[in-house]
Amino acid sequence: MPTFDAAQGLLEPGETGLFVLTDGRNFTLRADGSGSTGFWFVRPSRHVDRVVVCKQEFRDGRRFIDLFTARHDGVIGREDGRYTVKLLDVRLAGSTDRTWEEFADAGRNPVRYVSRPVAHARMNAPTMNTWLYHINPRRAGWKYHWNVKDPETLLDGKKWLAGKMFRQVAPGNLICIFTKNILPKPDGVYVVGTVNSVDLDGRNFDWKADKKRSARIRAVPIGKKVIRRFFGRSRGGSMQRLPPAKLADWLELLGKGQVSMSIIPPRKPDPDLDFLPGFEHDPVVRKVIEVAAVQKARRHYEKKGYSVVERGKPYDLRCKRGSTTVYVEVKGTRTKGAKKLKIFLTRNEVKFADTHRMELFVVHSITVVDGKRSPRARGGVHKRFTPWRPRPAHLEPLMYSYVVDASV
Questions:
Q1: How confident is the model at residue 187 (pLDDT cuts 50, 70, 90)?
Q2: Three-class SS of residue 19?
Q3: What kind and span of H or E run contains 213?
Q4: Prior bond to 184 cis, omega within 30?
Q5: Domain range for residue 222?
Q6: What total number of domains does the chain contain?
Q7: Would the pLDDT of 176 be above 80?
Q8: How large is the average pLDDT for residues 353-382?
Q9: Phi, psi dihedral angles at 318 (to 5 degrees)
Q10: Least confident of 13-17, 172-176, 215-219
């Protein structure tokens, strides 16, 4: 029976699959190949090409996950908001020895929608991957002998074991070294580099550190809570693969763009100018700040007697009181308030503001703290601009589109 390392390996290019993790209690199979699984919080309107039921059980102290594929045959709703998923042509496709988090690039949620791009290579073939490599010098059998007080000693090239991932690692892959139990330093990624070569017989690889980029993150290491948001966990097996959809944000966090592979130097600050919304590297933090700013604005207008509707595009809030309607654009940042505030507007936001009664609501000095499962935003000071209309003299183009004749 075939084994799969990742969920995309069960999909054809261009397909979207609904993957569910179950212990089998609500998974039924019939003699004609039909069946059902439930009860799940799913989106009944979302298109699904196939369903994959990941049936997990433990035998002799070991975890086994059998993978059943099926055609989607609709859902049956319940009063509590859960759904039973109906199945056709159910068959056992294989198994996986990965954890659910590794296999589906998921957290603890037992429901996962996975799409495979049309040009995506098979997941069981060597691809250009980004890896998180766990090292724990206090674990028995540690072989790499480095100074636990100085992560810089990891910069020397060595042959490292790839374990079960030895066929997945390829030259050019990015390696991010996650070091644990190095007190008084916190757990985190301190060193990154690229794979030079892979020894399939020895199941190991050698790599070369990126000293410039490593110098940056050694000064400000990437902590385990951020790592969980990108890789799904910060413990367990020695190697984890980064979900491809998160690569651009991960490279940005490391200080590199998706195309340029050199460190982008920071822009010299203007003492009279703060850049909003703060150039947040972490997309999760960006979203937390955005939501906090919008909620603060909503409470402000509701206290003034407005009924408020959240929109998002091309404005954030529509506030109505009697016959008066005000449209509000909201911006938020962790940056402290300054003499001048520079915000970023889309073309549609500017176009809408030119023809409607608008107010601008800026929330600065927001504090972001780590929560149990995700970051949380606190505080913030707001400044309200009313009436507000973008002045052409104050608009600065940051990007252009350019049309070329591509005909032969």
A1: confident
A2: strand
A3: helix 211-219
A4: yes
A5: 130-254
A6: 3
A7: yes
A8: 81
A9: -115, 115
A10: 215-219
